[in-house]
């Protein structure tokens, strides 16, 4: 299977046979080239229609092909990968960048030299997989959203951008460089602008925004119709490129959940907004995200929670049941068979009232002046916010003259939140449509006939006209036909019908047109036959992954979620054997010559463990507050200064910023030792952990207080009364637990938000009369994950574990030693006071996973409100992978999908749950279940279990 690939900041895309507007002399290779309309790859003009996938958000390499097949089945041809930004912790920057003084993403030599090693190595690898070396990588994006800067920062800085381009060039990247300006402002690093210029200019667009609270509201002015004009102003000589366009929405802690975001960014958004981009002539077009995945193992930034579903077309659990997946398939499959789109010229003038007399409708044209290209007319509501269904007629120039459509009377309809692409003089193999108001899904020229599949909304009137006059036949409900005889070049056969769920096939000579309603069209696929340029058309199935022909045998890889019938249209002559997912399958051939296949689907019986009845072990994960606890092995917080001035000068005698000590991920613990004067009664403490973080503090083994966290708050100041009078001359210790929700991204150049520290910003001890005790009287130690930057878990990587006792010991990994467990308490009774409890259990699974793809999720019971004082924060570990973070009173996520491969579907599995009770009453998990979604009979290859290793005694663990 061949999908191209784009890496972004570090991001990548492809193509050319030189056209005149190109500057081939500046390209370093001749495989990926471009003109002002599109890319060329090996001289072939093509659209790059891609979806963004971050493989690191699905840590099961054997499932990546499953995602790529689901992307390709849509009709897309490229995925984009990003190594930076992407709502990852620190925006993908390593935490140690907090320790350099230099401004990030600027020409500051300290920053640049900090990037040299990584870029040299990663780009060497990328260079190896460039298309020029036979790999899939076609474009390279050296920065991302280099669009705005903090006051006092040189911006845009051509020296900086040239440096990052040169880094890539020096490592052997020869592909064109592209950019991705944030949409609100643009024009940076334009081609031909000199130092720091890219080859292909691009910008992103999130026109519907991220307000998942109001998922049915399309905001005023949301549909941007000026993109083409902007493109011509900025970069008329390059293809119109949008490296990120809204494929979904992020959702923050305390947000509304991805189901609701999916109502905002749904199939209607895909219809109206993507077609608006086609009206603007976009030919390099990437959807952010096509599959979001999971922020497992602390890899997300604090602006999001564990799920990175993104309400994308492919859901976090890899299912493809969202309507937008099907809608996107209709659009991408159409463009795939419409090469004329790439050479058509978008008209940026105001066309309201020109192609339709109804000014409530705006029709934008992309007229093709090349022979046999076809022209495209994109119809939308003039007022894009309207919910009206609007009747309209068209007046279109065609090779048969100016036509008022429909010519058979009646009128067309544009439904609420709809947009359509009508075509004229559109080539369909050896035939030509003079026009069609029904939208095209695909067409394929087979040896004996050409099949065109068109669709319209249910109940709509549609009309198309085929060049020439034919003897025709039609099956299904009646159609109205009118033949217009003019001179030979202008004669045509017009067909009108009212769409319903019953299929019609209209046959004009060997052109067979399948007239469908949209819901039926959703069931169609056009899989390319491997190693050929032809495709089949398949009606039915949950997913058609691929098709191949070997001698007389046709093989399909396909998934089914119900008993169904498959119809294979255009099976090549000579095929006498059908294999589906490797099994020889019976078929019959119907009167249309289509292969009809009965697929049976049985719901498999799944035995899932009842976690409420499981045998759990309990480990106290806060031994630090016990009187005999020894922290002598902990690192001392002994840095009297920091390079990190993000929040201003240090307020504490020594830095208490975790990244100054190499701790960049997960929970942090601080130990503050002091000798009491006897007068201390209050502790003021300012902690910082990122959105929704929490903190708790104990004095010796007495609970002092907690900040339970709230959605957006990333810093919290509190003054706590100490539990009891202190005794002069006695030694005391504070134990502080501070959550790190991930490091902030670094969006605005040079403002260094990525350096926003994690840990303790300030503290004071006060007497009852508010007299402050000198700060240096407390000496601090701290810890995060065991080993900090010398992290222990090389399999799961540097971010997966934080500083909790059980994590430092590795007890979250499979098979922790029984001796670590102090009782058999269970998460459902929990603990009765503030603290940190760890519960672990194991269970075998035996699931029919070679035949079925079975989505599993851990689901926490979600009482509508928590009794005040019983809030908790939880971490979920599955076979050692942290696959869930939960904050009971903030939410919104309660269901945590875990992919097969992390779960061993045929073997033993270990699950761990940390419960951090922040309130005085302690906490319990009201309920935890392992639940299955619909098992899909699957053609994906078998999943390899990711063996991250189990518990081993860790030397030096404390
Ligand atoms: C099967 O897949 C279709 C298409 O994606 C979807 O509409 C339907 O809800 C699925 N059925 C089940 C039982 O999941
Ligand atoms: C476009 O043209 C229509 C019809 O002439 C007019 O009503 C409308 O105001 C124009 N729109 C813009 C943005 O100029
Ligand atoms: C601050 O940066 C300098 C290099 O500029 C480095 O030598 C020093 O170790 C850094 N200090 C800290 C506390 O990280
Ligand atoms: C915490 O206190 C500091 C110092 O007084 C102040 O600047 C900051 O705004 C406070 N933060 C919050 C979240 O209250």
UniProtKB/TrEMBL annotation:
Determine if Hydrolase is one of this entry's keywords: yes
Where in the numbering of this chain does the Beta-galactosidase domain appear? Answer: 341-524
SUPFAM superfamilies according to UniProt: (Trans)glycosidases, Beta-galactosidase LacA, domain 3, Galactose-binding domain-like, Glycosyl hydrolase domain
Q: Where is the signal peptide?
A: 1-19
User: What domain of life does the UniProt record list for this protein's source?
Assistant: Eukaryota
What EC number is given for this enzyme?
3.2.1.23
Reactions catalysed, semicolon-separated, are: Hydrolysis of terminal non-reducing beta-D-galactose residues in beta-D-galactosides
- Enumerate the InterPro entries for this protein: Betagal_dom2, Betagal_dom2_sf, BetaGal_dom3, BetaGal_dom3_sf, BetaGal_jelly_roll_dom, Galactose-bd-like_sf, GH, Gly_Hdrlase_35_cat
What Gene Ontology molecular-function terms does this entry list?
beta-galactosidase activity
Q: Which UniProt keywords apply?
A: Glycoprotein, Glycosidase, Hydrolase, Signal
Q: What class of enzyme is it?
A: hydrolase
GO biological process, alphabetically ordered = carbohydrate metabolic process
Q: Which family does it belong to?
A: Belongs to the glycosyl hydrolase 35 family.
Q: What is this protein called?
A: Beta-galactosidase
């Amino acid at each position: 299977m061949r999908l191209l690939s784009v890496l972004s900041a570090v991001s990548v895309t492809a193509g050319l046979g030189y056209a005149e507007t190109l500057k081939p002399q500046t390209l370093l290779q001749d495989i990926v080239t471009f003109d002002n309309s599109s890319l060329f790859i090996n001289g072939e003009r093509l659209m790059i229609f891609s979806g963004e996938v971050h493989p690191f958000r699905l840590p099961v390499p054997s499932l990546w092909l499953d995602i790529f097949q689901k992307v390709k089945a849509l009709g897309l041809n490229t995925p984009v990968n990003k190594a930076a930004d992407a709502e990852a912790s620190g925006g993908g920057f390593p935490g140690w960048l907090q320790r350099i003084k230099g401004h990030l993403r600027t020409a500051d030599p300290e920053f640049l030299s900090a990037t040299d090693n990584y870029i040299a190595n990663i780009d060497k690898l990328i260079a190896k997989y460039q298309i020029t070396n036979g790999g899939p990588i076609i474009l390279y994006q050296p920065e991302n959203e280099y669009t705005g800067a903090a006051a006092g920062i040189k911006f845009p800085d051509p020296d900086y951008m040239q440096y990052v381009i040169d880094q890539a060039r020096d490592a052997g990247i020869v592909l064109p460089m592209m950019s991705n300006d944030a949409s609100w402002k643009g024009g940076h690093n334009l081609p031909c602008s000199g130092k720091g210029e890219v080859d292909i200019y691009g910008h992103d667009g999130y026109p519907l925004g991220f307000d998942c609270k109001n998922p049915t509201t399309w905001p005023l002015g949301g549909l941007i119709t000026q993109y083409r004009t902007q493109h011509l102003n900025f970069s008329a000589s390059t293809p119109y490129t949008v490296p990120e366009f809204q494929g979904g929405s992020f959702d923050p802690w305390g947000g509304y959940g991805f189901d609701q975001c999916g109502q905002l960014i749904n199939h209607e958004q895909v219809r109206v907004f993507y077609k608006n981009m086609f009206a603007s002539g976009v030919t390099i077009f990437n959807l952010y995200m096509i599959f979001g995945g999971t922020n497992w193992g602390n890899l997300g930034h604090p602006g999001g929670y564990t799920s990175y579903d993104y309400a994308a077309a492919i859901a976090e659990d890899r299912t493809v049941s969202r309507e937008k997946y099907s809608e996107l398939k209709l659009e991408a499959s159409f463009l795939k068979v419409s090469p004329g789109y790439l050479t058509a010229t978008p008209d940026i003038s105001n066309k309201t009232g020109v192609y339709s007399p109804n000014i409530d409708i705006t029709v934008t044209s992309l007229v093709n002046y090349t022979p046999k290209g076809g022209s495209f007319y994109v119809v939308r509501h003039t007022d894009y916010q309207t919910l009206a269904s609007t009747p309209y007629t068209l007046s279109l120039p065609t090779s048969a003259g100016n036509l008022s459509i429909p010519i058979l009377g009646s009128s067309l309809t544009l439904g609420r939140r709809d947009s359509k692409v009508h075509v004229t003089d559109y080539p369909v193999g050896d035939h030509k449509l003079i026009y069609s108001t029904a939208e095209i899904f695909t067409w394929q020229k087979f040896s004996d006939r050409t099949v065109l599949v068109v669709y319209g909304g249910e109940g709509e009137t549609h009309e198309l006209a085929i060049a020439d006059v034919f003897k025709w036949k039609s099956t299904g409900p009646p159609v109205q036909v009118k033949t217009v005889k003019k001179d030979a070049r202008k004669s045509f056969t017009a067909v009108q019908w009212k769409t319903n769920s019953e299929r019609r096939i209209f046959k004009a000579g060997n052109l067979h047109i399948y007239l469908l309603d949209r819901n039926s069209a959703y069931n169609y696929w056009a899989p390319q036959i491997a190693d050929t340029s032809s495709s089949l058309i398949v009606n039915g199935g949950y997913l058609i992954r691929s098709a191949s022909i070997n001698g007389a045998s046709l093989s399909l890889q396909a998934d089914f979620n119900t008993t169904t019938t498959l119809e294979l249209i255009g099976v090549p002559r000579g095929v006498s054997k059908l294999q589906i997912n490797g099994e020889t399958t019976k078929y019959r051939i119907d009167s249309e010559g289509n292969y009809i296949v009965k697929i049976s689907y049985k719901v498999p019986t799944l035995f899932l463990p009842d976690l409420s009845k499981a045998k759990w072990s309990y480990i106290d994960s806060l031994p630090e507050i016990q009187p005999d606890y020894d922290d002598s092995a902990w690192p001392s917080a002994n840095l009297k200064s920091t390079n990190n001035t993000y929040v201003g000068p240090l307020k504490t005698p020594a830095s208490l910023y975790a990244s100054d000590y190499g701790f960049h991920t997960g929970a942090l613990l601080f130990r503050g030792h002091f000798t009491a004067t006897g007068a201390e009664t209050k502790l003021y403490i300012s902690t910082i952990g990122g959105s929704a973080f929490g903190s708790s503090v104990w004095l010796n083994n007495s609970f002092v207080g907690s900040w339970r966290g709230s959605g957006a708050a990333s810093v919290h100041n509190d003054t706590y009364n100490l539990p009891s009078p202190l005794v002069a001359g006695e030694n005391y210790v504070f134990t502080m637990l501070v959550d790190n929700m991930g490091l902030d991204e670094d969006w605005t150049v040079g403002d260094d938000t990525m350096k926003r520290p994690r840990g303790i910003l300030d503290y004071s001890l006060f007497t009852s009369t508010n007299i402050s005790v000198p700060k240096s009287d407390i000496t601090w130690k701290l810890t995060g994950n065991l080993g900090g930057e010398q992290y222990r878990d090389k399999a799961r990587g540097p971010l997966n574990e934080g500083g909790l006792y059980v994590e430092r010991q590795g007890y979250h990994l499979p098979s922790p030693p029984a001796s670590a467990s102090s009782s058999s308490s269970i998460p459902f009774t929990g603990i009765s006071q503030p603290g940190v409890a760890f519960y672990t259990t194991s269970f075998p699974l035996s699931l029919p996973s070679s035949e079925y793809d079975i989505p599993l999720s851990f689901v926490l019971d979600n009482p509508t409100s928590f009794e005040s004082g019983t809030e908790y924060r939880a971490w979920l570990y599955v076979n050692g992978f942290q696959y869930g973070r939960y904050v009971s009173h903030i939410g919104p996520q309660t269901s945590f999908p875990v992919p097969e491969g992390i779960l061993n579907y045929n073997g033993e599995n270990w699950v761990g749950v940390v419960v951090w009770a922040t309130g005085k009453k302690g906490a319990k998990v009201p309920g935890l279940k392992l639940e299955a979604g619909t098992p899909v009979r699957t053609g994906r290859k078998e999943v390899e279990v990711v063996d991250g290793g189990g518990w081993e005694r860790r030397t030096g663990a404390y």
